[in-house]
Specification:
Layout lengths: L30 E6 L3 H5 L1 H8 L7 E5 L5 H8 L4 E5 L5 E5 L2 E5 L4 H9 L5 E4 L19 H6 L9 H15 L5 E4 L6 H14 L3 H10 L5 E4 L7 H11 L7 E3 L4 E5 L4 H8 L3 E3 L2 H25 L5 H5 L2 H15 L11 H12 L8 H5 L2 H18 L5 H20 L8 H8 L4 H11 L11 H16 L2 H5 L1
Parallel strand pairs: 1-2, 1-6, 2-5, 3-9, 6-7, 10-11
Antiparallel strand pairs: 3-4, 8-10
Helix pairs in contact: 4-6, 6-7, 7-8, 11-13, 11-14, 11-16, 11-17, 16-17, 17-18, 17-20, 19-20
């Protein structure tokens, strides 16, 4: 049923409930940032930092550019860029974000070009997912990618974010305007260096002098971003409308925890973002590694063991006391001790924060979602920790058991006729369809599915993972988690 209440916009800000935080402006801020990919994560995470920054420096408004669909920018424009961020913690909070000032879709190429050339724009950010950077498997620019091949024809309307960023930089180079900072905000390892190299490679196909200028003058800091952001749904829209008393079809939600780690390359852009709560560091990789192994490794462990034990969400799995204790022990005893030390980063405090986030009952993070794509995720989430211990002659019992749970999960799904959601789903099902865990593991390892093929030579690990998988299949959880 259509909601006839007024749309959220600047005219109704003063009438909102006093408990709802809101911008202290009466109109959108001047543009200082162009952002490609204004999806839910950007609006819930980066835009909230910028909204904080705008409280003391109003020159950082965001122009939201959507390259594929006009849906999100149309909704934002209908509300003068305002939308509600719902914080889903035990005590819910609501905040109206007013960081966006302009809204451009696929048909707005002329205005997008003009903004990228505008000296007032000091920062270009991206959340376009890993595949949006058009990289080859080795992390370099894929010059054969259809979007890159299209853009290199000299079109006025690029399809790729690489093409757009270089087009803006080319305009600045030609005009003698300083380059903007380019900042990728997707969870892609070493994202700054990879994007910088991709920009240089692309520009080199057009103009070697432009490529040289980009190599020397354009800063592309690496980043790490983190905050659980469930998808918006009708329940969110209804909750926000009832709370604020106005319609808001661009609302987003996330947990209270948010982290934005940025490589410190100097300059005013990083300093401005740090003033809004971002972390500047010389070691983004250290933060990335902690997130990948502590948070993501534990997530995967909860997913496979939790699904086998009947849980459906992370919070529900954390209510399973033996499983929660197992994950905590794995982080304490096997993950944190081998992480590199990072100045200013307290690993034990991070562990405690991660476990508290997992217990948050207001965030329904489905284990099925986390369990997807295990063959691609586990080598980094758990496999690297295993390899580090084996290099020291150690057998990390908890990590081994977690990997055994994945094998048991595959066996359960394959033999129950349930599809395995994974790019290698058919191969995984074939490997897990029959035989005991040792046979299944042998097939997985030999095919390099989730495991390094070299593991076949490590009899101790092969035996231990298979034993844990057999125990999980049999429901002998005392052996798996004990």
């Amino acid at each position: 049923m259509q909601d006839d209440r007024q749309r959220l916009d600047y005219a109704v800000l003063d009438a909102l409930p006093a408990t709802v935080a809101r911008p202290d402006r009466s109109a959108p801020a001047p543009i200082g940032i162009v952002h490609f990919g204004p999806g839910a994560f950007h609006r819930a995470h980066q835009a909230a930092y910028i909204d904080t920054l705008l409280q003391h420096d109003p020159s950082w408004g965001i122009a939201a550019v959507s390259l594929r669909s006009a849906g999100t920018v149309t909704e934002l424009a209908a509300q003068q860029g305002l939308y509600t961020l719902a914080i889903r913690d035990a005590e819910p909070r609501y905040r109206v974000i007013g960081a966006h000032s302009r809204f451009l879709g696929p048909d707005d190429a002329v205005e997008t070009h003009a903004l990228l050339a505008d000296p007032a724009v000091r920062l270009v950010t991206t959340t376009v997912t890993e595949k949006g950077y058009c990289l080859a498997p080795d992390g370099t620019l894929d010059l054969t990618h259809p979007d890159i091949a299209h853009d290199l024809t000299g079109t006025e309307t690029p399809r790729s974010v690489i093409g757009w960023i270089v087009a803006g930089l080319a305009a600045r180079h030609a005009a003698g305007t300083p380059a903007y900072v380019v900042m990728p905000c997707d969870n892609l390892a070493d994202n700054g260096a990879k994007l910088h190299a991709a920009l240089i490679a692309y520009a080199g196909m057009l103009d070697p002098y432009l490529a040289e200028w980009i190599a020397g003058e354009v800063r592309v800091p690496g980043t790490m971003v983190d905050s659980i952001t469930p998808a918006a749904d009708e329940a969110l829209y209804a909750d926000v409308a009832d709370t604020l008393g106005v319609v808001n079809r661009a609302a987003v939600q996330r947990e209270g925890f948010a982290q934005w780690v940025i490589q410190d390359l100097g300059g005013p852009v990083g300093a401005a973002l740090a003033s809004a709560g971002a972390t500047l560091t010389d070691d983004v990789a250290g933060y990335e590694q902690a997130k990948l192994r502590v948070l993501n490794g534990s997530h995967s462990t909860l997913a496979y063991a939790g699904l086998l034990r009947g849980a459906t969400s992370v919070a529900e799995a954390m209510q399973d006391a033996p499983l929660a204790a197992f994950v905590d022990a794995m982080i304490r005893a096997e993950i944190v001790p081998i992480l590199p030390r990072v100045a200013g980063f307290d690993h034990d405090a991070y562990r405690a924060a991660v476990l508290a986030r997992f217990r948050n009952p207001a965030i329904v993070h489905r284990l099925e979602q986390i369990a997807a794509d295990g063959s691609q995720k586990l080598p980094y989430r758990l496999g690297d920790t295993l390899a580090a211990h084996r290099a020291r002659g150690e057998l990390p019992r908890h990590v081994v058991a977690a990997l055994g749970c994945w094998v048991a999960f595959l066996m359960q799904r394959a033999r129950g006729g349930v599809a395995i959601v994974d790019p290698a789903g058919e191969a995984l099902a074939l490997a897990a369809r029959d035989g005991d865990a040792a046979a299944v593991l042998g097939r997985l390892v030999s095919a390099g599915l989730g495991f390094d093929p070299a593991l076949a030579q490590d009899a101790m690990v092969m035996t231990a993972v298979a034993a844990a998988a057999d125990a999980a299949v049999a429901g002998d959880w005392g052996t798996v988690l004990g």
